Amino acid sequence: DSSRRCSCEFKNCSKHTANFSCNSTVRISIYIMEGKQTKTQMSEAERLELCKNLDKELDDYIDSLEKRSYTEGWPEDRWEEEMEKHPFFMTKTPTDGEQISPLMQGLQNLKYDAEENTPEELASNYKEDGNFNFKYKNYRLAILSYTEGLKAKCGNAVLNAQLLNNRSASQFMLGNYRSSLKDAEACLRLDPSHSKARARAIQCCTKMRNYDNCLKHCDSYLAYDPIDTKMQQIRTETISLKKRADRDSRLEARKMKAKTAASEALMKALRDRGVTLFQEEDEEPQLESLHPAAEGAKVTFGEDGRLSWPCVILYPEYGISDFVQQWHEDITFYSQMSEIFSESPEWDAERKYVPDSLSIFFEGDEDSRRIHRIDPTSTLGEVLSDKRYVIVAGTPKFIVFAKGSKSEQNFIMKYVLS
CA gyration radius for the chain? Predict the structure, then answer.
């Protein structure tokens, strides 16, 4: 026996328990008599023999074990990498297409398998995932998790409201205010007293300058908590912003109306003068200059009822050009050239370009390769009213040579002069 009670008169005393153990070499017995303990004495030789036999038995047992190297641990040089793969220690979720460990796969099946979880359990699991990603600012992953939770279609209105509110928060952090507002309002349909969703709906409306809807949400919020001073302040500020927005809208409408009226007056003036504008099929004619030096310039209709045009003067002989920002339609070509060449330009070393010795042309239809000579006494308006002239991008262009120059002769030879 491994243990037995003593035979003294205190048979039920737990202290009077004697342990008897034996081995192949020696037996030790402990007796308890009248509260005193006595031991059989071992000789020194017996004690040494006992120790020797115990050591031998331990060595024999160890030698009998199968000899093999331990291969199931993490490699010393890759233990951090292996730890990152373990679902209990990983700090980031696996990306799409990344191989996952069998343990992770098993945990996923256990957590997301519809056969192992009720719809409410699935929704709760996905909510936990979304909250984890939101905490670490992985808002897009959080949105995916909350969406999967909603797809579970559990019957728990409180849980569904939480999923919608949390997805609304994630959308807001990404600047998707319209989607955030949509989720917040869906949450409020399930739980009209949800203060966080209501507050976020107000923030979204403010960001989108939808002040009417913002005031509706403020009133709904105050219906549940009428003494909330912060919300009262937000409502007052929203009313002020709405008034300012309405004023700006009226001002913009007046500007647009005036701009439309001015545009219509300009187009009427062009039609009255018989000016031909180039335009693509089914498109309005382009009136704003595309020339690099004339960016933003366009024909204007003055209070005197006359037109002024941005014009480009080309000098093919030298490969350069001039830009006239506002050429009044009543100014003659001779007067304009006199102003341009009131001083000889640096590129005209021979002083050939003077108002009395200039040849001025405009190009007609590109397909016919026709050019047309301009009488210097003609006004800009008279030339632009010529049916053969087509104005491209709202910027008339004219070609100027020194009269009788070799460059002029070469130019005329390339085109059909009318």
Answer: 48
What one-character-per-residue DSSP string does 120-150 give? HHHHHHHHHHHHHHHHTT-HHHHHHHHHHHH
Closest to 108 measured CA to CA, from 118, 100, 97? 100
In 3D space, the residue among 381, 215, 205 whose CA is nearest the CA of residue 302 turns out to be 381
The closest alpha carbon to 203, from 176, 181, 227, 224, belongs to 181
**Main-chain phi, psi angles of 9, to 5 degrees:** -70, -15
Please state, in angstroms and rounded to a whole number, the distance separating the CA atoms of residues 5 and 11. Answer: 7
Tell me the C-alpha distance between 207 and 190, whole Å.
Answer: 24
Q: What phi, psi does 277 have (nearest 5°)?
A: -110, 135
In single-letter form, the type of residue at position 217 comes to H
Higher pLDDT pick, 367 / 117: 117
d(CA 351, CA 343): 10
Name the 3-class secondary structure at 30.
strand
Q: What is the pLDDT of residue 262?
A: 86
What element of type H or E holds 313?
Answer: strand 307-315
pLDDT for the residue numbered 216: 96
Cα–Cα distance between 40 and 30 in angstroms, integer?
Answer: 8
Task: Using alpha carbons only, give the angle 43, 49, 55 rounded to the nearest 5 degrees.
Answer: 140
